[in-house]
């Protein structure tokens, strides 16, 4: 749990893609869709750690709370009583997860687990857009499936999954940026 470089559990949160990645060392264990802070109360980027954990905190915090060591506020990774918010930028800075996802992650995370929050920029809302490396990206729209995206860009589903390091190709969310290989 403690070694940031070699082994142990760690969490990376991309606030642009609205995804939480759980790693054991350098191996991705699972990727989850999340809700993050709205523009007026953003989720602060930086390197933190889990400082406390609570089972059944109640109300809008859902079924689990993992407090982060972010200065100047009470920020956490938690469940939600509003599952339709997942995939959106709507919180007061916390990271919301579906209750069943936070319940799955919770027992795997210890006090002290490193959390890296970052904003990896992708293209804006243009559906197809050139990246600096010459590849294209696509911003997922409501109702899209990865299979439909693969067909529309004439690439294989397997290539899309590999290019985007998707742990679960059935879980893409509106606003997520997909790299087209």
TrEMBL record:
InterPro entries from the entry? LD-transpeptidase, LD_TPept_cat_dom, LysM, LysM_dom_sf, Transpep_catalytic_dom
Q: Which residues form the L,D-TPase catalytic domain?
A: 9-118
UniProt GO molecular function: glycosyltransferase activity; peptidoglycan L,D-transpeptidase activity
The record, for Gene3D superfamilies, names: L,D-transpeptidase catalytic domain-like, LysM domain
Known pathway: Cell wall biogenesis; peptidoglycan biosynthesis
Keyword Zinc-finger in record: no
A cellular component term, taken from the record's GO annotations: extracellular region
Q: Where is the LysM domain?
A: 136-180
Phylogenetic placement of the source organism? Bacteria, Bacillati, Bacillota, Clostridia, Eubacteriales
> Which family does the similarity line name?
Belongs to the YkuD family.
Q: What organism does this protein naturally occur in? A: Desulfoscipio geothermicus DSM 3669
Instruction: Give the domain of life.
Output: Bacteria
The answer to whether UniProt assigns keyword Metal-binding to this entry is no
Name this polypeptide is given: LysM domain-containing protein
Keyword terms, alphabetized = Cell shape, Cell wall biogenesis/degradation, Glycosyltransferase, Hydrolase, Peptidoglycan synthesis, Transferase
BP terms from Gene Ontology: cell wall organization; peptidoglycan-protein cross-linking; regulation of cell shape
Active site residues of this protein: 78 (proton donor/acceptor), 94 (nucleophile)
